[in-house]
Amino acid sequence: MKQAVTRKGSVGAIRIIAGQWRGRKLPVLEKEGLRPTTDRTKETLFNWLAPYIDNRVCLDAFAGSGSLGFEALSRRAAKVTFVEQDRQVANQLQKNLATLGLSADQARVIQDNLLSFLHGAKETYGLVFLDPPFGKGLLQKSIDVLEQQGLLSEGALIYLECEVSLPLSVPANWQLLKQKQTKQVSYSLYLKETL
To answer: To which H or E segment does residue 40 belong?
Structure first.
């Protein structure tokens, strides 16, 4: 749920749209730069993902509120790794995992810089959510490291959310499946094909 930031560190909420926790609200810290994906965008994305999400191993990079990862878990993703650099935000994600009764086999929170985490990651992912803070050049770097480190499984789906004006270079074997944009935000879903 998109909410205006009030006091730094105050609490807002996100809503899970569908699945086993449909309608459930989870608290999130409202911090500068944290932009939970709007319900409308999230609904569009998960309509796109509906045929594919079951049993996927997911990475919610730049997790923030965890909105996308929690929605994936609600819709029967096998596992989600949430990576969040901010300690307070990561702690809130951990509390929300506990609230939902999720085990470490189903979900885990990594409090780290995403690029550092990716350089040491051993797991491959079938669904990746990349929605970094705007204006910091992190999206292209993340795409490059995911490919270089071989962290995407065959047939992986990659969701990108970025500012409309951002030029991106995606690997040749990433097929664009869906794309939409608002005045300020572009969001796209790619499929990693076998070369």
So the answer is: helix 39-49
